[in-house]
Amino acid sequence: MVKVIASSLRKGNIVELDGRLYAVLKSENFHPGKGTPTTSVDMRRISDGVKVAERWRTTEMVEKATVDEREYDFLYEDGEGFHFMNPETYEQVAVSHDVVGDDKALLTDGMKCFLRTYEGVAISIELPQKVVVEIAETEPVVKGQTASSSYKPAVLTNGLRVLVPPHIGAGTRIVINTEDLSYQGREKD
Question: Where does the record place the Elongation factor P C-terminal domain (predicted)?
Answer without folding.
Answer: 131-186
